[in-house]
Amino acid sequence: MVADRRAPWRNTRGATRLGCLFTLLLFVTGLYYGVNIGGVYLRYYRLMDEMRTQARVAPSIDDDTIRRRLLRKIEQLDLPPEARAVTVQRTQRPREIQIATTYRDTLVLPFYKYVVTLTPEARQPL
């Protein structure tokens, strides 16, 4: 007697398996949510990068120039209007500059809406 060595899935004749569809559904759902959530945090990190850059060059420029550059970046990133309240403080002891703002961004997802409060801040010794 000869055993049939063909794979057991060969007699499904092209029918899909439920496990494959479920895995694909999970992957697509995770990708969709990840792109929406990732966009909010990508804008946050881009603003943080600009704040750190401005803090590094702060000894050679004044506060109004820093504020103008950050406001331009906030407009480019299409952040909420409350993000425009940028504070620039220079302290004497310790000699440093602190740049900060606070804003809330809304994540609109299917069946879920979440408001995230973000507070980017940069400090740099002068």
Explain briefly what this protein structure is.
The protein is of the alpha+beta class. Helix content is 43%, strand content 23%. The protein has helices at residues 18-56, 63-77, and strands at residues 87-91, 96-100, 103-109, 112-118, 121-125.
Description:
By secondary structure, the protein is an alpha+beta fold. It has one domain. It is built from two helices and five strands; from the N terminus they run ααβββββ. The chain has helices spanning 18-56, 63-77; strands spanning 87-91, 96-100, 103-109, 112-118, 121-125. A three-stranded antiparallel beta sheet has the order 1-2-5, covered by helices on one side. Strands 3-4 form a two-stranded antiparallel ribbon. A hairpin with a 4-residue loop joins strand 1 and strand 2 (96-100). The chain is elongated and about 85 Å long. The termini are far apart.
The coarse overall form would be elongated
Helix content: 40-55%
The number of strands is: 5
As laid out across the biggest beta sheet, the strand order is 1-2-5
Described by strand count, sense and barrel closure, the largest sheet is: 3 strands, antiparallel
- Discrete helix count: 2
Task: Give the CA-CA distance, first to last residue.
Answer: 87 Å
Helix-strand pattern: HHEEEEE
Q: What is the total domain count?
A: 1
Give me the secondary-structure topology:
Blueprint lengths: L17 H39 L6 H15 L9 E5 L4 E5 L2 E7 L2 E7 L2 E5 L1
Antiparallel strand pairs: 1-2, 2-5, 3-4
Helix pairs in contact: 1-2
